[in-house]
């Protein structure tokens, strides 16, 4: 093209930078280049955007890449916030429940339990053990949710795309069980202090004096003597909590909600998370209740064994003592936890949990 003709053509039609941007022939040859890739390439060009060919999408700063260390860290923070805040918030219910398990003759039911506690210890009695509850369940929540997301992805990668989808429920169960083992080790010392403070008047005021008192009397091992029943309580509970939640949410979007999840508003998705969590919590309470009775009994009775607990409580008492209150407590607790956890995930740019099979690595 001679210079006279070239001068009649706008310079942006033959500039080298845009020639590279608009190399349609190469894009057409490359069969794997999608239309979205082309639009993305065009939108990134300052020259093109300034001339109105493509309107750039608004940027979304702060997004966290899925399955990255930052994503797992964010899930740990969300889990810590959800578990620490909710368990601390229901401390009055927990105090009454633990006392009903330890002394059913005195704390006969929910209403009388609250009455006895108020009469003997006042309002302060309802919040005994709040500090070990806050610290312990914050640590437990961080490990539980953070490692669940990690193990779920890891086990999906090991299984491969086909089996990860086919056996997704097993992956949910294995991932949650693995995460809860770590979470229980983090929780156990604080759970031991919490139960003593709540059920033994005069033992200690809270975490700061209760923890060293147990260590002085029984050594560090005294903080972990309830680990086995705690694992027995928490692992089935967590497997039910995550496995049933994932399944309930998936079924809800598949059969009950006419709109695909990705087209629902974030507030609607969070409502589904709360409802699914509440239903899962009821199942959790029933499955884990016998072990919960054992944890309370062993932490309250120095030198007691599982056999002693079964003998004193009886099999019926082991499964039913304090169960209605625990269903109310755990249902509300679990639903709220999933709501807070998924709300935090949305806040940092991650999707809500559930309604999709585990993603395996390519």
UniProtKB/TrEMBL annotation:
GO terms for molecular function: mRNA binding; phosphate transmembrane transporter activity. Gene3D superfamilies: Mitochondrial carrier domain (1.50.40.10). GO terms for cellular component: mitochondrial inner membrane. Its main location: mitochondrion. Solcar repeats lie at residues 70-154, 167-251. Transport of phosphate groups from the cytosol to the mitochondrial matrix. Mediates salt stress tolerance through an ATP-dependent pathway and via modulation of the gibberellin metabolism. The lineage of its organism: Eukaryota, Viridiplantae, Streptophyta, Embryophyta, Tracheophyta. It holds the Pfam family Mito_carr. It is found in: Mitochondrion inner membrane. It is a multi-pass membrane protein. SUPFAM superfamilies: Mitochondrial carrier. This is Mitochondrial phosphate carrier protein.
């Amino acid at each position: 093209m001679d210079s006279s003709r070239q001068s009649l053509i706008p310079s942006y039609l033959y500039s080298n930078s845009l020639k590279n941007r608009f190399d349609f022939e190469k894009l057409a040859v490359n069969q794997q280049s999608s239309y979205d890739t082309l639009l993305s390439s065009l939108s990134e060009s300052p020259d093109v955007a300034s001339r109105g060919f493509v309107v750039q999408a608004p940027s979304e700063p702060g997004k966290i890449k899925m399955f990255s260390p930052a994503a797992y860290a964010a899930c740990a923070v969300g889990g810590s916030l959800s578990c620490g805040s909710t368990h601390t918030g229901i401390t009055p219910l927990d105090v009454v429940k633990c006392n009903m398990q330890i002394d059913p003759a005195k704390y006969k039911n929910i209403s009388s339990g609250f009455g006895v506690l108020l009469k003997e210890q006042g309002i302060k009695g309802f919040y005994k053990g709040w500090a070990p509850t806050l610290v312990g369940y914050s640590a437990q929540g961080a490990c539980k949710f953070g490692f669940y997301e990690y193990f779920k992805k890891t086990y999906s990668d090991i299984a491969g795309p086909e089996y990860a989808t086919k056996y997704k429920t097993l992956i949910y169960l294995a991932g949650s069980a693995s995460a809860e083992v770590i979470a229980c080790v983090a929780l156990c010392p604080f759970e031991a202090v919490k139960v003593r403070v709540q059920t033994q008047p005069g033992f200690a005021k809270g975490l700061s004096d209760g923890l060293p008192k147990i260590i002085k009397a029984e050594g560090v091992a005294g903080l972990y003597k309830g680990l086995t029943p705690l694992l027995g309580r928490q692992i089935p509970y967590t497997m039910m909590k995550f496995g049933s939640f994932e399944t309930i949410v998936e079924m809800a979007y598949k059969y009950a909600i006419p709109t695909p999840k990705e087209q629902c508003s974030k507030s609607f998705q969070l409502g589904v998370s709360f409802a699914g969590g509440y239903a899962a919590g009821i199942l959790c309470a029933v499955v884990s209740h016998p072990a919960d009775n054992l944890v309370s009994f062993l932490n309250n009775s120095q030198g007691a064994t599982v056999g002693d607990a079964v003998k004193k409580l009886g099999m019926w008492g082991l499964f039913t003592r304090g169960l209605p209150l625990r269903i109310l407590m755990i249902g509300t607790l679990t639903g709220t936890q999933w709501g807070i956890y998924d709300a935090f995930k949305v806040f940092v740019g991650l999707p809500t949990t559930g309604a999709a099979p585990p993603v395996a690595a390519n």
